[in-house]
């Protein structure tokens, strides 16, 4: 099911690089993270393999309201899985997540939004199911566009940062 076409976001000017400059005006933060397995942390062969692999940079934006993560990468991944699978149960299985955890994430997300991201039908003769709402589809599109925009805006700095890594 296709959602509404979102207007293109304007390209915003990027401030010049200023190391260690605090930016208190930022409301939403994106953290770049790379993943390392526990085996890479200690063994010499794993360290050598890690040194040869190409670095991976991921933006992990979270929007919080008080102590609740209203929108984050896990909730967006869950919405995408629900959109593909058509049910919360199948989406949870596809993400190797318990049904309870998936239900709690979805409930927290829906409570954080003005309109729910997912409509669910209770089980019955046809087994129920879950469907993304227009709000859910718009949330996914905006989140992924923000990630892409951030990666593009930081491309030069990311190249300089990854060039500092041992190879």
What attributes characterize this protein structure?
167 residues, two-stranded antiparallel sheet, 7 helices, two-stranded antiparallel ribbon, mainly alpha, Arc Repressor Mutant, subunit A
Q: What do we call the CATH homologous superfamily of the domain at 61-119 and 128-167?
A: Winged helix-like DNA-binding domain superfamily/Winged helix DNA-binding domain
**Total number of helices:** 7
CATH architectural category of the domain at 61-119 and 128-167: Orthogonal Bundle
The average pLDDT score comes to 78
Q: What this model shows, in words?
A:
This protein has 167 residues and is mainly α. The chain has a domain at 61-119 and 128-167: Arc Repressor Mutant, subunit A (Orthogonal Bundle). Helix content is 46%, strand content 11%. It contains 7 helices and 6 strands. It has helices at 38-42, 44-52, 73-85, 88-94, 99-112, 134-153, 155-163; strands at 32-33, 58-59, 63-65, 68-71, 118-121, 129-132. A two-stranded antiparallel ribbon has the order 1-2. A two-stranded antiparallel sheet has the order 3-4. It has a two-stranded antiparallel sheet with strand order 5-6. Helix 3 packs across helix 4 (88-94), helix 3 (73-85) packs across helix 5 and helix 4 (88-94) crosses helix 5 (99-112).
Produce a short descriptive summary.
With about 170 residues, the chain is mainly alpha-helical.
